[in-house]
Amino acid sequence: MYIAKINRNENMDEVKQFLRQHGFAILVSTVEGKPWATHLPLHLSADGNTFSGHVARGNKQWKELAAQPEVLAIFQGPHTYISSSWYDHENVPTWNYIAVHVYGTMRIIEGDALIDSLRQLTNHYEKNSPRPVSVDTMSKKFVEKEVLGIVGLELTISRMEAAYKLSQNRDNKTYQEIMKQLRERPDEQSHQVAAAMQKLRPEIE
């Protein structure tokens, strides 16, 4: 992924926190000689070295992983249009966004490893539910039946690239005006981008 130097985030602790908050990924590999993408949640391990997830057994992407295990997982954060009408000088519009590309090798997991992966994924997203469900509270027979329809995957990370394109090339006055305009918009994406910009320059409100 192309990332301008000013937009590159190399703080891996911050990037991993982002990945835990934005775990819905696009998994890209090659199937029958052509690019293939699957949209799926991936859960980052506690040590930050691997992701686990699963695909439908009918999805043929998993069938070629043994021969071509290298994959790309794309994680998208908040993004929004930036109007150049907010600047005090002539310029072009642009787009602000956060995105992380994760490269690595994928292997199939089965048995207890798959069940543990499902447990971690479910617990992560159920933690704020008023009536959380859990793999451990489901009947063994039900879980065994459902597992037949999926293939478990584990991605071992080899490289990560993080793009935080958040108007870092603008002076403080313009930067402040961009945040102001984003906060006045009605959509949550704009508000999240403004919050990310605020985090980069906390001295500007």
Labels describing this entry:
elongated; 7 strands; Pnp Oxidase, Chain A; alpha+beta; 7-stranded antiparallel sheet; 34% strand; 205 residues
Give average pLDDT, whole number: 96
H-E string: HEEEEEEHHEHH
Number of domains: 1
Query: CATH fold name, please?
Result: Pnp Oxidase, Chain A
End-to-end separation:
31 Å
User: What Rg do the Cα atoms give?
Assistant: 20 Å
Under CATH, the homologous superfamily reads Electron Transport, Fmn-binding Protein, Chain A
Tally of separate helices: 5
The CATH C-level class name:
Mainly Beta
Helix content: 25-40%
Strand count: 7
Main structural class? alpha+beta
Hey, roughly how much beta strand do the residues contain?
25-35%
The CATH architecture can be named as Roll
Largest sheet: 7 strands, antiparallel
Q: Return residue spans where pLDDT drops below 50 for at least 5 consecutive residues.
A: none
Overall shape: it is elongated
Q: How are the strands ordered across the major sheet?
A: 2-1-5-6-7-4-3
Report what the structure shows.
- The protein has one domain: Electron Transport, Fmn-binding Protein, Chain A (Pnp Oxidase, Chain A).
- The longest helix has 16 residues.
- A seven-stranded antiparallel sheet has the order 2-1-5-6-7-4-3.
- A hairpin with a 2-residue loop joins strand 1 and strand 2.
- The model has no long low-confidence stretch (mean pLDDT 96).
- The chain contains five helices and seven strands.
- The chain is an alpha+beta fold.
- The chain is elongated and about 65 Å long.
- It is 29% helix and 34% strand.
- Helix 4 packs antiparallel against helix 5.
